[in-house]
Amino acid sequence: MQLRLKIWRQANSQHPGQFEQYAIADAHPDMSFLELLDVLNEQLIAEDKLPVEFDHDCREGICGSCGFMINGQAHGSQSQTAACQLYLRHFQDGDTLTVEPWRAS
């Protein structure tokens, strides 16, 4: 399964951020969204690039700390599902997924 990730990257609150795009060629439908980010981070580290930082704790859908927006929806498109329990089988091969932090006004 091939997916494209469009991820908001920002060094800190004093620097402007921007979306960066990444391609994942070996995603498996049974992977969770956080496992997909792990695969991306392995790629980035192998290329001597900074990994994507994200919060998580239990990875069992209990704690809710994996809160970010996926395609404009909190935790992604599955109702009552944390990002760690959102499986790639809910996406189509070739999809582009936009990932960004929750924003407070």
Strand order of the largest sheet: 2-1-5-3-4
Low-confidence stretches: none
Q: What does the radius of gyration come to?
A: 13 Å
Query: Residue share in helices?
Result: 10-25%
- Could you report the average pLDDT, rounded to the nearest whole number? 85
Order of helices and strands: EEHEEE
Amount of beta strand: 15-25%
CA-based shape: globular
Oligomer: single chain
Q: Helix segment count? A: 1
Summarize the biggest pleated sheet: 5 strands, mixed
List the helices and strands and how they pair.
Layout: E1 3-9, E2 18-24, H1 33-46, E3 69-70, E4 73-74, E5 96-100
Summarize the structure in words.
There is one protein chain. By secondary structure, this protein is α+β, with helices and mostly antiparallel strands. It has one helix and five strands, in the order E-E-H-E-E-E. A five-stranded mixed beta sheet has the order 2-1-5-3-4, covered by helices on one side. The mean pLDDT is 85.
